Each structure stands twice: as structure tokens, then as C-alpha cells.
Please model this.
Amino acid sequence: MTRTIYCAVALLCFIATPVSGAEVEWLEVKRKDGHIDIRSEIVIDAPSPSVYDALLEYDKFAEVNDSFTESRYLDPAPDGAPRIYTKIEGCIWFFCKTVERYARLELIPRWQITAIAEPEKSDAKSSVERWTLIAKEETTIIDYHHEIETGFWVPPLIGVWAIRGTIKRSTIEAAERIEQMANDSLTKDNATTQVVY
Model:
């Protein structure tokens, strides 16, 4: 009887847990002095227009990844380009850091998002973060590339493998949340377009 109860509880837990198709296909991190180069390929089980819209929801980025403590849109740049603010808090081993970034967005609708940091206001000397979306049937491949010059001291004992491990965990978490946001918006869009007789 007890075994039957355990099996039933396990089955209920499995049913209640959302299954995500988001995957980090590969992740590469290179570090040289204060420069860090991150490249990754992420597969999201949602169509690219919905993924693009989800990636632009900076007001919700704090919900996407636990590392983000703040994220929001700012007043646009003089040329009309959208601007964002993000605040990230994280630790790698014993080294913890808060990083603030003010950046402008350069957009190629439905295909590419590039965030370029404003160094005079940000903790990084330079930062260019780019998401390129490739539609593949009902899934989306994200080609992610982030080049950053930290502008602050990072202990030399923290090697690429430690940085990679931390980034991979947060990338998987973010990919799953982005997939959920993309599919949620798709469900809402479908619901509003249904005709009621």
C-alpha cells in the first residue's frame, strides 16, 4: 500500500512539472585578462516571432533569470533607439559582484537583437550582447554572442571552466523561461483570435 502511495505521488509530481524543450546545444567561454567572450547556441521550442518578442520583454527579465535583480526600459536615445537598464548580482565561488548596465538596443525586427552598453554609465568598459534568431519549423535556434570587457578585477583563480559552469546554469534557466513566455504569448494570441459563435 505504501509503495502504491509513493508511486502515485511520484506520478503526480511528474504530471505537475512542466516539460521544457529548451536546450543549450553548446556553450563556449574564452577569457583573456579582463575580456570575456561567450558564445552559445540555444534551441527554443517556440516559433521565432514569439521568441523575439519574449527576448524584448526587458521589464520582465528579472523573472527570466534569478541573476537579474532589476531590468527595465529607459527613455529612448536621441535617435529614437530603445534603451535598457539591467542590474545583475551573482557569485562564482567566493567572488560576488553586482553589475549595472545601461545599453541601447539595435534591432533587426524578428531576426536580431543587439544590446550595446553605454560605458560611461555601466560597470563594464565595453559590452556587446547579440541574439540572432533562426527559424526552424516550429522551433527557434538562438545564436548568442556576448563580448564583454569587465572594467573590474576578476580573481585569476576563477578560470574559464568556473565561469562556464555558472553561465550554463543561468542560460538553461533563462532559456526555459523565455520558451515559457514565448508559448504563453502565443496561447494568448490564439485565444484572442478565436471566433465565438
About this structure: Residues 1-19, 192-197 have pLDDT under 50 and may be disordered. Residues 123 and 165 are 22 Å apart (CA to CA). The two ends are 50 Å apart (CA to CA). Strands lie at 23-32, 35-44, 68-74, 83-92, 95-108, 112-117, 126-136, 139-149.
